[in-house]
From TrEMBL:
Name this polypeptide is given: Rhamnolipids biosynthesis 3-oxoacyl-[acyl-carrier-protein] reductase
Keyword Metal-binding: no
Gene3D superfamilies with a match to the protein in the record: NAD(P)-binding Rossmann-like Domain (3.40.50.720)
Annotated Ketoreductase domain residues: 16-200
Amino acid sequence: MDTAPPGQALFDVSGKTALVTGGTRGIGLMIARGLLDAGARVAISSRKEDAVAKAVEELAAHGEVHGIAGDVSTPDGARALAAATHEHVGGRLDLLVNNAGVTWGAPLEEFPDAGWDRVMHTNVEGVFHLTVALLPALRAAATAPDPARVINIGSIDGLRSPTMDNYSYAASKAAVHTLTRHLAAKLAAEHITVNAIAPGPFESRMTKFVVEDAALLTAATAEVPLARFGTAEDATGIVVFLASRAGAYLTGTVIPLDGGITGCR
């Protein structure tokens, strides 16, 4: 019977290789920085080359980071990103964080077709196509005691009925949660775990309009039982847990990271 390593070693991710999509801002940037600080080697991706270059410059002081411009919203784009990841970090990938995502808001009867197509292509199909394209690298890293990990970033808007008119976003995140369970069941025998994190309010580009409006920020914070937005430490902590020996026996889960919004009310 295996004995878990004591103390900090239980949460050790040093030497592991990770790809964080959408890693140039928001929760993706928080996760990338946290993994670097924990000793992992990290590749980040984003559609915009200038954003990638800026993020790499910011993160370089924290560890070995590689920047890749790539777009997961098309199957070819996802496969190209997988190929570029192979070139940058080699044929083994310990951790894939599928964080790249977009949102769209519009009143119900005015919601445009484009607001569905762009969101679904990126948030759902992107997760699927990139994960499949990176399976050879994940398999190369996977062992029974230390599986390769896929972490999908969902949302509490995929767990509850949202208050905002973000119909395609909420539906896409619910789809991500179901896809997570489906992939977990399929890949468990290959020692690849697949879990999802469902964040509540964090400071990001998507929530900028709330953070910059005092009244909206007060109202949003009041909905959180722990009475605050999530922090970089909150995002990093759950990812390090899932990526380390501490989280090796967990797969097919959707973990709310929301200060108690979905669990306490």
